[in-house]
Structure formats: structure tokens, C-alpha cells
Amino acid sequence: MKFPVTIHPGEDGYFVAECPIVPGCVSQGKTAKDVLDNIKEAIELCLEVRKEQGLPLVLPLHEVEVAI
Q1: What is the domain range of residue 32?
Q2: Quick one: CA dihedral 15, 35, 19, 27, positive or negative?
Q3: What is the DSSP code (8-state) at residue 66?
Q4: For residue 12, is it within any domain?
Q5: Quick check: is 20 in a domain?
Q6: How high is the pLDDT of residue 11?
Q7: What is the pTM of this model?
Q8: Torsion of CA 54, 24, 48, 35, to 10 degrees
Q9: Looking at the domain assignment, is residue 1 inside a domain?
Q10: How many other β-carbons are positioned within 10 Å of the β-carbon of residue 34?
């Protein structure tokens, strides 16, 4: 299953990745490859915990159109 992730530079020189449809799912890595590997593991772990707690695995993702 594919999950959307965002990646941005962190304050400490590392990359930060977040999965917006899995609440609280954040990771970091020194390189773009590292952060992608780490967020994959974080998603798996977050989904496992959410399942154990009986929470919805993901939140709905919505798109809106904005004129720029």
C-alpha cells in the first residue's frame, strides 16, 4: 500500500518526513534516502499501534483547489 509523505529540511540539518494521513507519524534522516527508509518503518509501527488501540488506521485525505 502506498502512503503520501511530505519531506522538508529540519532545523538540525536532517530531513523530516511526515505521513499526513497517519496521525503523529513523523521521522527524520540525514539524507533523503534515510528519511524515506525511516518514514516507511514509522508508518508500519504507527499502523500497528493504531490497530492494537482500535483506532482508524488512516485519516481521509482531501484535496482542495486554490488559485495562486
Answers
A1: 6-52
A2: negative
A3: -
A4: yes
A5: yes
A6: 87
A7: 0.89
A8: 170
A9: no
A10: 15
